[in-house]
Design brief:
Length: 411
């Protein structure tokens, strides 16, 4: 692939640690591809962990996804940032032995291979804990490490479908159209976030325990999505109720919906607390609804949500989205027009919060805008958390295999 580090090219800049970042000193090996495991390790790397991304000689297939500039995928500039890239052919005895040596010196492993894959390489949890009892092993898969579906293949769309999310994204009255995706691989990202949180928790627990032993974490796409289904499980279990698609509305709160505006754009409005509802109705000239006994509480408003939505939409259709948003924000009603990426980049709040970070990427040969990490730490600027962009395949082979592997293995 074009990202491959070529023999004879100058070595990359030495990896930079920042002792202010909370996970500095935590060494994590990533044995992942595509999205879930690499997303987890990207979060850990942003927080300061030393992440060693193990790639096959051709690189993670994700390097070939999305738009490309100068032959390189711009998404990977973000996806691989702050990570060390090494190449290993795990079909060979030498590749497996080097991976064992890395894992003997690591705090944690994150992998999202098919269940049973690392066992077939002789690197299952029992074997890994025999050589490094402290190792935390986070395993991310489609359906989990057990159960009747464990061996079925899965991608993000399958997690959305089986976890219950895609059923909810349909629009009522459009049964002939497939329920849409949210536009990103949300189940992979969710599983990655859960994996990062569970891994840090496991390392904390290990280091507080007298035994200091690592553990195995089992995460899957389906249960990650299923965990977000709010009160739907008890609603079904106790009442036999199956929540149906509501489009842009919520069945449990009103008024909260997305309304058309005069310029063809949309405005999301959340007016579902009692005082906010009254301010909203007053601003749109519907004091009669604010005073209506039927609307005195959330349950009554939910029962009459269609009437409220019609009243709000009648008002928003008279104004461009930005003017409608300004009018409602002036009376402290939560709302926002629907932003596309151009809106995000041009918005003063995104700019003031340093949510758009310019990162020099030598592979792409340009300054690449990166999204900042979503967490903020006192005394650490968001730009300090992006130390380098996604590197070339195998860019850190020499640093890792010649320097790191000379260190003593974890006791």
């Amino acid at each position: 692939m074009p990202d491959e580090a070529k023999p004879g090219t100058p070595p990359p800049e030495a990896p930079r640690e920042d002792p202010r970042l909370p996970l500095t000193g935590l060494r994590v090996v990533e044995l992942g591809h595509y999205i879930a495991a690499p997303f987890a390790t990207r979060l850990l790397a942003d927080l300061g962990a030393e992440v060693i991304k193990v790639e096959p000689p051709g690189g993670d297939p994700h390097r070939d996804w999305g738009a490309r500039v100068n032959g390189h995928a711009v998404w990977f500039s973000i996806h691989g940032r702050n990570k060390l890239s090494v190449t290993l052919d795990l079909r060979t005895a030498e590749g497996k032995e080097k991976l064992r040596a890395l894992l003997a010196r690591a705090d944690a492993l994150v992998e999202n291979l098919r269940p049973g894959a690392i066992e077939r390489m002789g690197l299952g949890p029992e074997a890994l804990h025999a050589m490094n009892p402290r190792l935390v092993i986070a395993r991310v898969s489609g359906y989990g490490q057990d159960g009747p579906y464990r061996d079925k293949p899965a991608f993000g769309a399958i997690g959305e479908a089986m976890g219950g999310l895609r059923h909810l994204t349909a629009n009522p009255g459009q049964a002939d159209l497939p329920p849409p995706r949210c536009g990103v691989s949300i189940s992979d990202d969710l599983a990655g976030m859960y994996a990062a949180m569970a891994l840090v928790s496991a390392c904390w627990g290990r280091d507080r325990s007298p035994e200091g032993k690592g553990t195995v974490i089992d995460l899957d796409l389906v249960s990650s999505v299923f965990s977000l289904m709010e009160g739907m499980l008890p609603e079904y279990g106790l009442l036999g109720r199956v929540r149906q698609p509501m489009g842009a509305a919520l069945p449990s709160a009103a008024p909260t919906n997305t309304y058309p505006c005069a310029d063809g754009k949309w405005l999301a409005v959340a007016g579902n607390s009692d005082p906010i509802f009254r301010r909203l109705m007053t601003r749109i000239g519907r004091e009669d609804l604010a005073d209506d006994p039927r609307m005195a509480g959330n349950s009554g408003r939910c029962a009459n949500a269609a009437e409220l939505d019609e009243a709000i939409a009648a008002w928003t259709r008279t104004l461009p989205a930005k003017e409608a948003q300004d009018a409602l924000e002036a009376v402290e009603v939560p709302c926002s027009r629907l932003f596309d990426m151009k809106d995000c980049v041009e918005d003063p709040h995104f700019q003031a919060r340093d949510m758009l970070l310019p990162v020099e990427d030598p592979l792409i040969g340009a300054t690449v805008p990166h999204p900042a990490a979503p967490f903020r730490f006192q005394g650490i600027a968001p730009r300090d958390m992006v130390r380098w962009p996604g590197p070339a395949v195998g860019a850190h082979n020499e640093h890792v295999f010649e320097s790191l592997l000379k260190q003593e293995a974890k006791p």
